[in-house]
What we know:
- 13% of the residues are buried.
- The protein has 121 residues and is mainly α.
- The protein is 59% helix and 11% strand.
- The protein is elongated.
- The protein is built from 5 helices and 4 strands.
- It has a single domain (23-114), classed as Winged helix-like DNA-binding domain superfamily/Winged helix DNA-binding domain (Arc Repressor Mutant, subunit A).
Amino acid sequence: MDKKEESRKFRPVVKLQVCTDEPVFGPGLIKLLEHLEESGSMKEACQKMEMSYSKGWKIINRAERELGTPLLIRHQGGRSGGKCEITAEGKTLMEKYRAMEAEVKMCARASFERWFGELVT
């Protein structure tokens, strides 16, 4: 099955968000944290996500405020440039989110097959 045929296959799509009155964290924050963990650079992480640097900081700052815990350790720039490290709490949040996301997707697939199995080839 080629990519085009695969994309036309019926399947559930689940986007997991954790909210108060507003979304606190979801796939965007988690992906940003994963890019930050990989590169150590907010600038590079934002570039990979095709978002502005200021938006990246807004997402991080809002999540930290709502969660009441720091997600990043910030090292100011200078001659060697700044960098960011994910805190232990941030890493735990990422792990829990990815585990819950996998579980929710598995449940969604099972429910989809139960209700719409005739659409799956």
